[in-house]
Amino acid sequence: MEPTFMNNDSVVVFKLAYGIPSPSRNSFLLQWAVPKRNDIVIFLHDNKIVTKRCIAVSGDQLDFSTNSGYILTVNDKNIFLTPQEYEKMNNYEKVPEGYVLVLGDNLSDSVDSRDYGFVSVKNITGKIISR
């Protein structure tokens, strides 16, 4: 998430931002909110805690173009894709229900939804609210 957060930065995570997670970590006992665009969320991916910015939520339109490279346009933001990322994502017209699209702030070095797909809202374990 550089330059927003640097390695070893301390952050404050609001673990109840979206609800009370169940002990199994793949659902909520009680859910009262979902991530919004621009929220910086944490979730588990490959048994690691990951921090990414939510750039699209369920139902947001996804527009793909191959006119000048592989480009995903979402919420007026153009995101350049590799051919592999394009092939993985271009079958979607919208962000699926119950999922979000997350990206790192340093797009050239980030491993994010372009690589591993949409993130289930049920897997999001908190929201970063400050440094």
Description:
The protein has 131 residues and is mostly beta strands. 8% of the residues lie in helices and 40% in strands. It contains 2 helices and 11 strands, in the order ββββββββαβαββ. β6 and β7 form a beta hairpin. The chain starts with 11 loop residues before the first strand and ends with a strand. The mean pLDDT is 92. The longest helix is centred in the middle third of the chain and has 7 residues, at 83-89.
Keywords:
single chain; 2 helices; three-stranded antiparallel beta sheet; 131 residues
In brief, what are we looking at here?
The chain is mainly β and 131 residues long. The protein is 8% helix and 40% strand.
Gap between N and C termini: 13 Å
SS element count, helices: 2
Assembly level: single chain
Radius of gyration: 15 Å
Helix content: under 10%
Principal-axes shape call: globular
Contiguous uncertain segments of 5+ residues: none
- If strands are numbered along the chain, what order do they take across the biggest sheet? 1-11-4-5-9-10
Q: What share of the residues does DSSP label as strand, in percent? A: 35-45%
- Please trace the helix and strand order, writing H or E for each element: EEEEEEEEHEHEE
